[in-house]
Structures are given as structure tokens and as C-alpha cells.
Amino acid sequence: MRSRCGWQRHRARRAGEEGFTLLETMMTVLIMGIVLALAVPTVTIVYGLTTTVQNTYSAVNQLVLASEAVTRYIHEGVASSSTDTPFVSATADSVTFTADTGETAGPEKIVASVSTVGSTRSFDLTITPAQSSTCPPCTYGASPAGYVLINYLTNGTGASPVFTYTLEGGGTCGGPPPTTPTTTLTASGALVAGTAYTKLYVTGTALTVASGDSIVVGSGSTFQTFTATGPETTGATPYIPVTSLVANNAYASGTSVYDNACSATQVGEISAVSINFEATKNPGGQPSGYQSEAYMFAPSYSAAVG
């Protein structure tokens, strides 16, 4: 009896150790596959969102750095001689001026501008020290110490400028026109999409145009930039001569026309600069923006060096 009972206990133990059946194993694998199929996209999305957030913060950090640097230099703006002005030239996407940074040789020349290399647009800031024993007036060499502050810049076009300048006594230059444009296309000067033009017929306030200036037609997301080949021609039918260019869109009579470069007279009247940086950070990252306003006149501002 003891031997038979032992054999029965042995059979019971073996039956309990048989494990999963093939069907049970297949069901387990199927369930695990479904769980993984649901989890993998979620993990991918989480990692993607993490990258986007990190790159967005990185872009914002670049924007803040650039804005603070340019603001500081503009606030330290000083003329390189008693007959000059701190600003040398100013457009919607570039500004050249001199700033008192504490260098014993004299104020340094600062150039802040948008540059494009391939498909990547960047904001560059270059600083060139004055040559020894030349101030005033200061002279500058051709070898600045330059560095890139922002990559993947998304603005810096005629309709979405980096810089807009406030003039003494009111008025602006170097950026899009106010809500009500002061210079527009004439009734007979409307542009037809696909047609090449060498003249922009305008009415309203005459523009101070120099050869090579960027003349922007339109605003917002619908605009086109022409290159002036000379000053605005006055008379019964004033027009701006431009390099031949095919209109990328239809621009009706009354469409705004503006020069994104400040004239020599306006450059001498600049009292403040509005700075608008917009950029993204590849790969991923959301378009980010940072705005500030820099007043040129520092408490220690002096029109002369010394």
C-alpha cells in the first residue's frame, strides 16, 4: 500500500509540473505583442516631445542671449568722432554702429546682421576693435572677432524684420509700414503674378531710395522684395527703378511699398531700436520668439570720443 500511494503522489507531482499548453503560450505571446504594439508609439511620442521641448528651450536661450547682447551694445552706442553719429547704417535685417565697450583704443564697431549659408539662416554679431592711435575719427581693420548667436532664424525678411528703428520726434524706419501705409502702388501700377517688372509705380509719401536698397511690396505673409537700381523718380508718374523680377503674386493698387533701409538722414535720427528675434531649433523644436527694445542713449552718452 505504501508503494502504491507513493506512485500516486509521484503522478500528481508530475501532472502539476507539466507547465503551459501550446494554446496558453500562444495567447500569452499574443497579449504581450498587443501590449508592446500599444507601448512603442507612446514611448516614441514621449521621446519626441522631450526632444521638442529641449530644443525649444535651447532656441529661447539663444534668443535671450542675442537680444541682451545687442541691447547692451546699442545702449553703449557712441559716435566715433564729433561729426559722426553712433549708427553707421541700418536696415530691417542689419545694423552697424559704434559702441563704447571700454577699449582704450576707442569705441568698437558692432555689426549685427542676418546671414544665410545654404538653407540655414543665422544671426551674426561681429565686433571689430578700433586701430590704435586713430580715434577720433576711428578706423577699423577688416578682421573682426565674430561669432554666431542664433542658428535657424525664421524671421529677418522684409515683411518680418529683425530691427525696426524709432526716430527722434517720432516715426520709424527699417521695418514694415504702419497699419496705414504712406507709400503704395498706384492704380496703374498693380503687379500681375508671373509678369516681370523693372519699375514700381508708387503714390503717397516719396521714399528716400538708394541704389541697392531692398524695396518690399506687400506685408505680412504676402510680400516680395525688389532691389532698387536708383532713387525714386519724381514727376507726374513717380516710380522706383528695380532689377527685373517676376511678381510672385498679384499686388493690387494700394498695396504698401517700403524701403527696408534707413536713409542717411534717418540713421542720424535713430534713438531706439526694436529687436524681434524668432527662431526654431532643429531637429524638432517649436518656433520661438523674443522681443526687446534698446535705447541708444546711455546715461554716459557722448557724441564725441574722449
DSSP strand content: 25-35%
Structural class: alpha+beta
Q: How large is the radius of gyration?
A: 32 Å
Uncertain stretches: 298-306
Secondary structure tally: strands:
15
- Write down the overall mean pLDDT: 81
Characterise the protein shown here.
The structure is a single chain. By secondary structure, the protein is an alpha+beta fold. It has two domains: 18-169 and 264-306, no CATH class; 176-259, Elongation Factor Tu (Ef-tu), domain 3, CATH 2.40.30. The chain is 24% helix and 31% strand. It is built from three helices and 15 strands. The chain has helices spanning 2-16, 22-75, 264-267, and strands spanning 87-90, 94-99, 108-117, 120-128, 145-150, 163-167, 172-173, 183-185, 196-204, 214-219, 222-227, 239-246, 257-259, 270-279, 288-295. Strands 1-2-3-4-5 form a five-stranded antiparallel β-sheet, with helices on one face. Strand 3 and strand 4 form a beta hairpin. The N and C termini lie far apart (120 Å). The model is unreliable at 298-306 (pLDDT under 50).
